Amino acid sequence: MFAARLGSSNSKPATTARHLHQIHAFVIKTKLLPSPTLPMLSPKLVASASENLSHVCHILKHLENPDLCLDLCNSIVRTLSSTCKISSNGNHLISLQALVLFQEMLVNGVVPDNYTVPHVLKACAQSRALGEGMQLHAYSIKSGFLLSNVYVKNTLMRLYAVCGLVNSVEAVFAEGCNRDLVSWTTLIQCYVKMGFPREGVMAFFDMCNAKQKADEMTVVVVLSACSRLGDLSVGRKLHGYIRDNGVNSDVFVGNALIDMYLNCGDADPARKIFDEMPVRNVVSWNSLISGLAHQGEFKEALKMFQKMQRTGLEPDNITLVGVLNSCANLGLLEFGKWVHAYIDKNHIEADGYIGNVLVDMYAKCGSIEAAYRVFQGMKQKDVYSFTAIIVGLAMHGEAKRALEIFSEMPKMGIKPDEVTFIGVLTACSHAGLVVEGKNFFRDMECVYSLRPQTEHYGCMVDLFGRAGFIDEAEKFIKNMPIEPDASVWGALLGACKIHGKVELGEGVMKKLLKVEPDRDGAYVLMSNLYSSANKWRDAVKLRKAMKEKNMKKTPGCSSIEIDGVVYEFRKGDKSNRKSKEIYKLLEGIRSLLNSSFGTDDCIILI
DNA sequence: ATAGGGTTAG
């Protein structure tokens, strides 16, 4: 029966583990694997070999000419490396199996060829099997493959890159001189992914100096480095490089260009590229929508989302993150709720990125209880989830709840970061918890090894200042190890305003103007301080000076959302279609208020 | 037969 199956060219290929057992038994009996057997090992059997590796290894042991099995071994290793997915458990075993088979090959005299080692290395990279990969690194040096076969070099670099070992990637890259475009791209990509985009760009220039021409994949990676750096000048150079060197502007290149231009603050070319793309996919839309949101162009981002929907293209999680982020910043609760309903309807889990941005959206739109419900329902809470709800609760004056949730973090094994402490300190500040705030500030460095930034110092000055401890606030600024910035002086000036400290305020205003000379913040705060101290003449003088200096105004803007349409209102803005009626109504309210309370009690700015 | 690509928060 075995002989029939193994010998006859008419028999069906072996497909199951049972067939493998039969071959195994036959080989043990005859010490021979008839050559027609090899083509009969179907892909399905090769796949099942991952679960029956011991049989394969035994077969190898019993063969008279094991080297005939090189192709079989290569295809088993290839199958192992292409089937193992990155998952929590079991994957390590698969790469281990690839390595076991590889060792058996060596022991039994199957000489690996150019394809074997890259396949085994790929299996290691996919399952992050660093230890096994390092053994292969040693083998590659000894056998000479590392220097003779650029695929070995590149797959080894890839393994170290996915394990985050930048130094090892550099070392393998630098070894010998057999590097090609893939080696360069892998190196640059590794720099960018590990948070060193500057090094990535420099490596690209090195590559150009080495007379190596880039292709689509390389420019995409370098563009992403420019995007992360916000380096428009290098980004533009790269755009020129693409045109001059005949790099094919495929959809990947187009998307990377859109992302680069938007993150570098130049929206026009991004839109132009988007409009002129012959093929667009969901990533093109995502790059545009999240890029616009990143630029603060939230309304534009939402407009593009609506346009995307008209094309019938389904948004994915990344689209929705950009959309919810825009809703959050515009305060569009109804729009945000609609997205939440869309998420539920499409069975997308309100977890991870999506959950976090939902929490933030509800908190920023004033619906703190909805934010809390989403937070509670999340299974995978991380530092972003906790920070979003803590900052949200702090902004809503719910200091006690914010601090309670903060105290949950260590129990869940989640370490707070710098932004979490902004929320914690804001909570303390709003609730007047001076002692607690001081303790948290101290813990930041002592317990969590987080170096406080100027924003944290600003929170502390705000905390002391609001509570009336102006002297302590001043002392605190004097002892700062870093240069105080606008957030710090602004907090102190705010405290002067609350407590009517005119003279101190005048000095603080000068300091604030030094670090922020072309913004109107200092003037506005100070003139308010004068007004509240009844120094009207000084207030008017300051307002006049402000007008003359043509300063950058912090835009005061309110918006409402009616039936999905956003209406924005700015001070003095008459662009609304119904502005005449609106102003007439406002005039009515004003005169009503005046007759009820008198002008001194109520000032409405229109 | 084998290697390198873009978009996501507080």
Overview of this protein structure:
The protein has 606 residues and is mainly alpha-helical. Among the domains are: 465-566, Serine Threonine Protein Phosphatase 5, Tetratricopeptide repeat (Alpha Horseshoe); 572-601. The protein is 70% helix and 2% strand. A hairpin with a 2-residue loop joins strand 1 and strand 2 (565-570). The longest helix is centred in the last third of the chain and has 19 residues, at 579-597. The protein is elongated and about 110 Å long. The termini are far apart. Mean pLDDT is 86; it is low at 1-13 and 599-606. The chain binds one DNA strand of 10 nucleotides through helix 6, helix 8, helix 11, helix 13 and helix 15.
